[in-house]
Amino acid sequence: MVSKNQIKLITSLQQKKYRKQEQLFIAEGVKVVQELLNSNFELQELFTTKQDFLTVSKIKVHAISEADLKKISALTNPNTCLAVFKISKSKDFVEKGLIVALDDVRDPGNLGTIIRLCDWFGIETLFCSEESVDIYNPKVVQATMGSISRVNVVYGNLETFLTKTKLPVFGTFMDGKNIYQEKLPKKGIIIMGNEANGISPSIEKLVSERIAIPRFGNLQITESLNVATATAIILSEFKRN
């Protein structure tokens, strides 16, 4: 049985200020939890409705009813388990290879998917502006499907970072060069903009290479692609080249 204090703590971790205060975050679902158990993240507690995770210390595993799981879950339809992990200290940031940088990406699903894409395409570092959604938001963690443990996500002042870098800076714009016709380098920074407004004017000034994903539809009406979808296309082209 989960106690009232445990319920209060776990549900509070759905908010950024409490995650920061407690230095804890939650993960749900067998696949995501197992991925994190196999990583460097340290487990605090694990609540499960089934006899899973037999290799985990019994001290940290708690049997829980479906009703109680629903009380602590951040999901509309809870899975069979929820785990509380300690937030890891930030890793050293090294400028090498391709780096994806997010300019005020706010949607948790988009960030989670982009982290997963970085994992898939071998992008070691994802730089997020300070205004971007928190990596430890439960919906972000869920969308990464465990990739959160394999990509170094760094938060900071994006403008300052771009001002100091010596790497070429790529940004996607409607008037950019056709990405399918460009010779793309193995090193550089790829900026992905906000869902509604794209790349902000202050960041646009620091872009050295303007690229575009061309529209092939007959009507040419669609204004833009979802930022995660665009990231997938762009990373695929950079890696193909």
Protein architecture, described:
- By secondary structure, the chain is of the alpha/beta class.
- It is 32% helix and 22% strand.
- It contains nine helices and ten strands.
- The chain has a six-stranded parallel sheet. It has a four-stranded mixed sheet with strand order 1-4-2-3.
- Helix 6 (138-144) links the parallel strand 6 and strand 7 (152-156).
- The radius of gyration is 20 Å and the shape is elongated.
Major pleated sheet: 6 strands, parallel
Strand order of the largest sheet: 7-6-5-9-8-10
Helix content: 25-40%
Integer-rounded radius of gyration: 20 Å
Provide the residue-averaged pLDDT: 93
Summarize the structure.
With 241 residues, the protein is of the alpha/beta class. Helices cover 32% and strands 22% of the residues. The protein has helices at residues 4-12, 16-22, 30-37, 66-72, 108-120, 138-144, 158-164, 201-204, 227-240, and strands at residues 24-28, 43-48, 61-63, 81-86, 98-102, 125-129, 152-156, 169-178, 188-192, 209-212.
Q: Mind sketching the topology for me?
A:
Elements: H1 4-12, H2 16-22, E1 24-28, H3 30-37, E2 43-48, E3 61-63, H4 66-72, E4 81-86, E5 98-102, H5 108-120, E6 125-129, H6 138-144, E7 152-156, H7 158-164, E8 169-178, E9 188-192, H8 201-204, E10 209-212, H9 227-240
Parallel strand pairs: 2-3, 5-6, 5-9, 6-7, 8-9, 8-10
Antiparallel strand pairs: 1-4, 2-4
Helix pairs in contact: 5-6, 5-9
Keywords:
elongated; single chain; 22% strand; 32% helix; alpha/beta; 241 residues; four-stranded mixed sheet
